[in-house]
Amino acid sequence: MIIGAIGIAALTTGIIITRKYKTQIMNILDRTKLAIVGRTINKIIIHCTATRPSQDCTVALIDQWHRQRGFDGIGYHYVIYRDGSVHEGRPLSKVGAHCVGQNSDSIGISYCGGVAEDGTTPQDNRTDAQKATIKRLIAELRQAYGNIPVYGHRDFATKACPSFDAKTEYN
Fold first, then answer.
1. Which position among 66, 77, 131, 153 bears the catalytic label?
2. Residue 169 main-chain phi, psi, to 5 deg
3. What gap in Å lies between CA 67 and CA 31, rounded to an integer?
4. Sequence-ordered list of residues with C-beta below 8 angstroms from that of 134, at least 6 positions apart, any chain
5. Closest Cα partner for 78 from 107, 99, 57?
6. Residue in 21, 47, 87, 98 annotated catalytic
7. Is 47 annotated as catalytic?
8. DSSP assignment of 18-61, as one string?
9. Do β-strands 86-88 and 106-111 pair in parallel, antiparallel, or remain unpaired?
10. DSSP character for 156?
11. Which residues contact 96 (CB under 8 A, 6 or more apart)?
12. Is 161 assigned a catalytic role?
């Protein structure tokens, strides 16, 4: 599902997600909540795609990258595009392939971005729309699975991913 328009509005108190993206997130969760029978979710792990802000990034492209690395498809459960739209990756009923040793009981969320235009320097270049969507998606997942902790990939590996401190920002 691809949504074209940016779905955020700035307020003096910060960024809020519009009804359009809230509905999109709820529709995705409604379709997937019942599919996770037999899989316990204990945490959310945030990732970046390690792409430049100017670089195209889609679920199909990430799926292709992951297959080239030997995965059986995209490893993330959700991907947040630069415009703040949320897209389904791997079904929640399927164990992720996003963080070695942590996949069986986690949900993987990745945002498009995470490196500077030089292609190598880690950079928190999330758009305001991405920040708002990630925050809302985490809130909705916590409603479904309890107050589960949020980590960054870097909390489990010697990587910069997701190029910011997700544990501090979201817990």
1. 153
2. -70, -35
3. 25
4. 46, 80, 109, 111, 126, 170
5. 107
6. 47
7. yes
8. -HHHHHHHHHHHHHHGGGGTT----EEEEEE--B-TTS---HHH
9. unpaired
10. T
11. 75, 76, 77, 90, 103, 106, 107, 108
12. yes
Here the contacts of 7-11 (C-beta below 8 Å, separation 24 or greater) are 7/83, 7/84, 7/85, 7/129, 7/133, 8/84, 8/128, 8/129, 8/132, 10/128
Q: Please list the residues that pair with 152 across neighbouring strands.
A: 46
Residues 6+ apart with CB under 8 A from 55: 112
Q: What's the whole-number mean pLDDT along residues 117-136?
A: 97
Alpha carbons within 13 angstroms on the beta-carbon side of residue 68 total: 6
The mean pLDDT of 15-42, rounded to a whole number, is 57
Asked if 153 is an active-site residue, the reply is yes
Catalytic, out of 94, 135, 159, 167: 159
Identity of residue 91: P
pLDDT of the residue at 29: 57
| Catalytic position from the list 76, 81, 111, 151 | 76
Length reported for the chain: 171
Known catalytic residue at 145: no
pTM: 0.81
